[in-house]
Amino acid sequence: xxxxxxxxxxxxxxxxxxxxxxxxxxxxxxxxxxxxxxxxxxxxxxxxxxxxxxxxxxxxxxxxxxxxxxxxxxxxxxxxxxxxxxxxxxxxxxxxxxxxxxxxxxxxxxxxxxxxxxxxxxxxxxxxxxxxxxxxxxxxxxxxxxxxxxxxxxxxxxxxxxxxxxxxxxxxxxxxxxxxxxxxxxxxxxxxxxxxxxxxxxxxxxxxxxxxxxxxxxxxxxxxxxxxxxxxxxxxxx
Amino acid sequence: xxxxxxxxxxxxxxxxxxxxxxxxxxxxxxxxxxxxxxxxxxxxxxxxxxxxxxxxxxxxxxxxxxxxxxxxxxxxxxxxxxxxxxxxxxxxxxxxxxxxxxxxxxxxxxxxxxxxxxxxxxxxxxxxxxxxxxxxxxxxxxxxxxxxxxxxxxxxxxxxxxxxxxxxxxxxxxxxxxxxxxxxxxxxxxxxxxxxxxxxxxxxxxxxx
Lengths: 238, 209
Known about the structure:
By secondary structure, chain A is an all-alpha fold. Chain A has 9 helices and no strands. The mean pLDDT of chain A is about 90.
């Protein structure tokens, strides 16, 4: 298996771990960009989805947002934002349009899952809470949100993994990140670099998913563990 | 927009659309072929549900470009590479919906079927599957629309259907093919979604609200 030894060689070459083109820099770049995009998208999407769910309004919009988002290829969003705001010669060429595209892709699953989670709260429970004299705000914070949390977190996980994946594709348009190794590897027909890049990207996506699953387990009440396979959780891929 | 480019490339756009549909159709069909046994196993032996959903979940989590890149050294810049990756992404969605659809069949109905003398296979095919159909078709819709989007990424490994236009647009910094590829791909996804929603209504008229 010469390809395996080639990949091992690639990873053990000191040059690949140094400077702006090295693994640590690309990894940091990828992580910072993804983290910033997910946090920004959460700040936009979660309050919106939670509020719409709490008020029981805008259901068609909240649910179809993800369907619409899914129909638009992430490569197309990246390329179109690049065309729209990626003026060559401007500072941050490549990074700014990539960031905007990533946020735009991450918002829909956040809104939809938060909305579905909030609407999924048993109406009897809501009635009981109101009967106990809870105000709208108390109901939201102490009853609806904790019960909706598994789906809210499912949205965060889906959005985060999708952002990590799409940030990889941003190497095709103009940005850096770990996708550079894959795209440059294709360009140079360098299989070792392609595989090394792919392994790094896959690892990053899986670690993101695992860490967020842990967070979810830590913050969701034990009584809300799903034994059944859920289909209300909205999934997206890139 | 350069409309003369669109006029000159009418045949290419049609051919790319056809390739896009083929790649999607093969991926979803193979995905269903694999998901049914997986879903049935997961439901028959509950302990296998975790590992099956876990494995298909890992496949779903790996970014598409990385999955294609991992396959290229072995299966080349080929349609096989594209299909392996695309099928991989349909599995989680399809298995999940097949299991949940079958789980949703009320116990009373199953008991009634059993009482009427249905054998397990007959009960599955003639009672449980038809009742699970709306949820299963909902899964097929999500899988199909997701696949249509992901097919564009296979443009990077020499396939891609309409994705080839998007990549041409990026590489040449030329907006027209980029917009044409994007718009046609979105249109394809919408048409497929609406068609499948229509199929669900025809096949399961009782679920119509």
